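Milestone M4 deliverable, item 7.
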Amino acid sequence: MYKKLILAAVAAGAFAIAGCSSDGASGGAEGGADVFGAPIYLRGEMNDWNAQPQYLIKKVSDGVYVATADLKVDWAPYKFKFADSAWSAGTNFGYRDQPGVFEWGGDPVVLNPKSIFEEVKVTPPADGLYDFYIDVTGENPVTYVKEHK
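Output delivered:
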């Protein structure tokens, strides 16, 4: 009984220490940002929906993160989401309200972090590099896309 109690206390301490090792704000793998405690990737038709290191989001300011992708007009519209490597609920960001289409110069698309199939769509105005932003500073997370500078 005493050994089980000691073992349980040691295990609880180890979990507590591991849980304190990340603030959930930055410093994920390869310089990426941890949003809600997990590395988050831009995932979509531009990368076959894979969680690839070059699409790991990076922090640009408090609560604002970006990933860059090369887009071609002929392949548009592009569907995309932000998600961790396991598509986990709470870190699987798709559109909250239909139609979930980002229009150039328009309002950001409100995201649902517990999305399942709700991909955001965007059509680039020209071939080139584009920055995909996720902004978690407001009441709801949002996304928007800008030409890369």
